[in-house]
Write a structure and sequence with these properties.
- The chain is α/β, with parallel strands linked by helices.
- The protein has a single domain (about 25-160), classed as 3-Layer(aba) Sandwich (Rossmann fold), CATH 3.40.50.
- About 35% of the residues lie in helices and about 15% in strands.
- It contains 5 helices and 6 strands.
- The strands form 2 sheets. It has a 4-stranded parallel β-sheet.
- Helix 1 (about 40-60) links the parallel strand 3 and strand 4 (about 65).
- The model is unreliable at about 155-160 (pLDDT under 50).
Length: about 160
């Protein structure tokens, strides 16, 4: 059975079961790097640097989660710990973390890297290494689960599920 989703102005979009999005094949990559800065110009440059890396992640065939873009205009709208805790909640659901080149100058990015390591989320410091890593892992053509993970999901299309 295909899934349906409402998109835009009450338009229904059919998502065929064979669609990689429906089958969760696409890996989600969290972008970690400096956000806060002493002035608006430097903060915007931090955001743009993360945004540029996120674009490269998308171009490489992954979904990028760039928290910098989520809260770009929220400065001062709520305490910082709300954004930071929310970022960690999103990170926990990601397949990997990728850092910007200047991530080490950010206490928030350092905390995100430490969090990822604690939760055994792979951390990458280079997009090329991230791409090589995920290309080297054999996955089920139907559900995207690493085939070396045992047992394989019983409800996978390949295993006779719907």
């Amino acid at each position: 059975m295909d899934a349906e989703a409402t998109h835009g102005r009450n338009e229904t979009v059919r998502i065929p079961k064979s669609c990689s999005v429906y089958n969760f094949k696409m890996k989600i990559i969290y972008i970690a790097g400096p956000f806060r800065a002493s002035n608006d110009w430097d903060r915007e440059n931090n955001i743009r640097r993360a945004e540029g890396l996120a674009l490269e992640v998308w171009r490489a065939g992954f979904a990028a989660l760039c928290p910098h873009c989520n809260t770009r205009f929220f400065n001062g709208a709520a305490p910082d710990d709300i954004w930071l805790n929310g970022d960690l909640a999103m990170l926990k659901r990601c397949d990997a973390l990728l850092t910007t080149p200047d991530w080490e100058r950010s206490s928030g990015a350092k905390a995100e890297v430490a969090f990822a390591k604690t939760w055994e989320i792979p951390v990458f410091y280079s997009l090329n290494v991230l791409v090589e890593h995920f290309q080297s892992i054999p996955t089920c053509d139907h559900c995207g689960v690493a085939t070396d993970m045992q047992p394989h999901a019983a409800d996978c299309i390949d295993a006779g599920g719907n």
